[in-house]
Every structure is written in structure tokens, then in C-alpha cells.
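Lab notebook: predicted structure, single chain.

Context: the supervisor wants predicted structures on file for every construct in the current expression panel, including those that have not yet been purified. This is the next one on the list. No modifications to the sequence; it matches the entry in the shared construct table.
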Amino acid sequence: MKLLEKVKPLIDPQKFHHTFETLPPDFHIFHTNKTGGDVIQIEKSGFSVVLQGSKEVQIGEYHYQYRAGDFACYAVDMPILAHYQATQEQPYIDLRFYLPPEQLQQLTETLLSQDYAFPDFSGKKLLSQLSSTLEDALCRLIDLHNSPNDIPILYPLLQQEIIYRLLCSEQGGLLRKITTQGSNAQRIVSAIEWLNQHYNQPFNVEELSASIGMSSTGFYDKR
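Prediction complete. Output recorded below exactly as produced.
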């Protein structure tokens, strides 16, 4: 995988999370050489692709096995249970990229205005395989690390291309649901964001569901 070969030289073995000095902090590498044991962590909203190694992830009642080349999109910061498979010689490596909500919504609306047919999203198809076009865009973004003078102009364009490639992928149906104003998925995203900000405060489910324009029954059905 050419993306892996570009990322490997940039890894700092002393850090689990590695951001780029020149690129914005919404683009970073995660790696670990430890295997076994369940790790509870928050998966940040955005896009994540496994470059080396594998991991098993539990989200609610669903279990997913990530292998090299698999990617997933997360609508909101989400608690997960992860089990990494790695060795000292071949650490687990993934690349993570934050998706700006405003840009995501703008591109979604543009595609909808052109009658683009988004794939259906069942809620169970979380993983997709990295396409050559998406990998190429990510490689070009990493190359900007060595060309800081190009970043102000080219980074926003590549960011837009990556979001476009994701919208055109199998994950496009999920991304469309969470960015469509008034959809149940978008309302649930709003509720989760509120809970993340007020987790230490008491709340009433009926009042929370009403505040996002849903009945309490519908809210429970969509949890």
C-alpha cells in the first residue's frame, strides 16, 4: 500500500498519536505495538483507515474486524471497545482525518442538487475498502507535509476532494443521513453532541427528544 509507505517514515515511536508539524491538527497518525487487551476509547468524529495490523471494535451490540485497507466514518465522537493486533516489528498503524461538518453538508447538498444517487445505508455496513482514488488523494495530502508553502492553497482543495471521495463511497449513504437537516440521523447526532457537552448534568429523555424534534418513542427506537 503506497499510503503506508508514505506514512511509515513520519512515525515517531515515542508517540501513540502523531500530528504533522506543518499540516492542520485534524489529520494525524495513530500507532501502537501492543497487542491484546480491550481498550475503551473515544473514536473522534471523522474518517479512519487502517494501514497496517488489525483491530476488533465493538460498538454497542455490533462487532467489526478492521484489517489493512479498511476504513470507516464516524458521525460523532463515539465510545468504542477496541482490541489491537500488533507486534514490535509490525505495529498497528491507522490514519485519522476530521471531517468539517459545514464542508460535509455543503458537498452533500451539491451532490443532491445534481440528483446523485447515494448508496443505501443499513446501519450495519460500517467498513469499506480504501479505493485507489481516495488513497491517491490522501497520499497527495501527506506530500504537503514537505511543501508548507503549498498548504494554504492546496490543503483546502485536497480536504474537499477527500470528503467528495467519501461521499461517493459505500459510506456516502451514512454521511448523507447525518448531514441532511431534519433527518432522524441528524437529530440523533445533535442529541449525542448535547450529551457530550452536558454529560455531568441530569437530563430527562422526554425533554431531550422534544428539543431535537422527536418523540421519546422514536428517540428510543433510533438509539
